[in-house]
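Example 4.3 (complexes with small molecules)
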Amino acid sequence: MIQTLQDYHRLVEKLCTLAHHYYVLASPLVSDEIYDQLYREALAYEEAHPTDILAHSPTQRVGGEVVPFLPKQEHKVRMWSLDNVFNFKELQEWLKRLSDFAKAPLESFVCSPKLDGASLNLYYENGQLVSASMRGNGVVGELVTHNAKTIRSIPLKIPYTKPIEIRGEVLLLKEDFKALNAQRLAQNLAPFANARNASVGSLRQLNSSVTAQRKLTFYPWGLGLCPRAFNSLQKAMQEVQEWGFLSLDFVACSSAEEIQNTFDAFSKKRPNLPYEADGMVAMLDDLELQHSLGFTIKAPRFAIAYKFATAEKCTKLLRVINQVGRSGAITPVGVLEPVSVQGALVSRATLDNYTQIQQQDLQINDIVVVVRSGDVIPKILRPLKELRDHTQKKITPPTHCPSCATALQAQALNVCPACNLALLLKNKPNFCPKCVRFFQKPTHCPACASPLSSQQQKCPKCAYKVGLPRACLECGGDLIYQEFCYRCNLDLRERARGLVCPNTSCPARVQEGIVYFASKQGLEIKGLGDKVVAQLLRVGLLRGVADLYTLKKQDLLTLEGWQEKRADNLIRAIESTKHAPLWRFLCALGIEHVGKGASQVLSNAFGLQVFNATQAQITKLKGFGSVEGQSKIASSFVGYLQENKTLIETLLGHIAPTAPHIKEPSVGGFFAGKNVVLTGTLSQPRARICTQLEQQGAHIQTSVNKQTDYLICGENPGSKLEKAKSQGVQILDEETLFKHLKNA
Ligand SMILES: NC(=O)c1ccc[n+]([C@@H]2O[C@H](COP(=O)([O-])OP(=O)(O)OC[C@H]3O[C@@H](n4cnc5c(N)ncnc54)[C@H](O)[C@@H]3O)[C@@H](O)[C@H]2O)c1
Ligand SMILES: [Zn+2]
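Answer. The structure with nicotinamide-adenine-dinucleotide bound is encoded below.
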């Protein structure tokens, strides 16, 4: 928000620059939504300080300068701009202002799509098209009759013979725009940034044969000079259509709610419309009333543009802080001047990595474009360098972890710094250094063109070997391994890397690890979000995930903000994870590359023996992306288990994840294929014993039944012992149990 006169002057200068690029040069520097946002900031200041208003402020004038290279023409009746609203509340406010001004309730409106093209004013006399002029500054516009005559949807003759101005929008239909850009690319010409620019550029051509090739379309939306006493805009437009013009949707509405419904319907239809629309125009239908309500300095009072919501906003980047993830990766996060994006106040947004910051030359105090799409974390897209005001400061990457002060290490990025595509193994095709060719794995069989899945080594139809070639197909030379981004082809070898804190006991990493363990992706422990984890770490009740299982209600009750019920709930929530499915437990560990899918495959393949599975066994699993006998998932999983042996053992001492029964145990022995029940107190945690039994192919049952083979009986056995005896189930004491386990 601008506060001072100096800020206001600066903003007006920026807006003038942007408007010049948009209207005159037809090459906008920023998106419309960003322009609209800045425009509104100026407007808000002007409303609060009317005496400060600069006469050249874009809020005070229609459009831009008329371009000098075309003849000028004065409009018979002035042309206008439109004021904007962006939501229902603003629509209601406009309606209220309007009825207050009219001193009567207003009930008859028409709504039409707001076409995003170039305004054109057609003047007819004796039924003949005499002139066509662009809007220009509203009073005078560029005369482009020679070009208008090449547009087939503009009738050169109409049956109405009195002098009349018919106004509408010249645009390129989406299809025609696509074709035009494809053609320009083929001719090595720069493509147009959007259909509006292309339409404006095409209309301003000196040589009308260029315009004629561009397939422009004209839709009428209103009248200027008009001797005939029409009383309804909708009826007038129907009649215009009968004179040979295309028809635009005009929907009659009688209240704010109906206008809103029509807007919602247009928004839904928008992707399927043949043209680009950036909103909807709502107008009073009664032309006489329109006339009597008149105009503000640049726009009619009787009409409003209701703009489609967009996910983009701009705001100032105040500073950058560094977040440490559970893997130690440092993510720079931008602290922003709060801005409302799609109804949510955004004050922080992620910046991905420092390579990107450097590539974009992002600086502190830059005005940045922020997006929020769906429930994804807001993201800073890019800085608006045109709006720099000499207060900008460079951003330097950190050298030490903000949490534990360990020196940071560089690590391969997991996203492409240029286009942000997640980088997977497949981003390593072979590369021939001699003839500079990439060899990517084919998506279709080169021999018979059958489609291939990414895993296939041979074509399913003709059995042609479709893996990567070992030698260059052009020159036969050796291929080298090179990393590059699949989408934008950026060579990633020399790129700066991501930063990581290598300290596994870094407090920030530990905290993130516990939060993840308790999150929806992990064991879903309700009531254990980041704030609670931070508190428990701070007071020393937690040092790692394993401590969750020794947390006591009494300890929680000594902490600030904890009452009986809250403590009970948390303890119960933790307790309830003790028999969580094994795959969830694996997932909760947050091992790199081992997400939900991989955890499920691992759990189904190995059951509780997964903790003993070898890298070679895991690599063989279907879908584990084995490339030349290497699987990222397998090495990451096995590596994690080796490094965290004690942690896993401690966790399995507390909890016994439920695993699917593996019918064919990989290790045979006394318990292979047997159903086993445990009762009484044993000298080792029950979960650990269960794990060992399952590793030998036993199936652990919770109660004794006819299928039970053995009952393992510790001290103070429960009723299970009686039941086992009555069913004739063989009973083993602890000593025998361990003997058999050892012998296996
Ligand atoms: N990106 C930039 O840098 C930049 C700079 C300046 C302006 N702009 C954009 O231009 C807009 C402001 O331009 P403006 O003041 O000329 O207003 P406008 O172009 O948004 O609205 C007025 C125009 O809408 C057109 N229109 C389309 N469909 C219509 C319909 N159904 N009924 C009536 N009119 C219809 C008419 O040509 C009319 O002149 C801003 O909202 C902004 O998004 C962008
Ligand atoms: Zn650290």
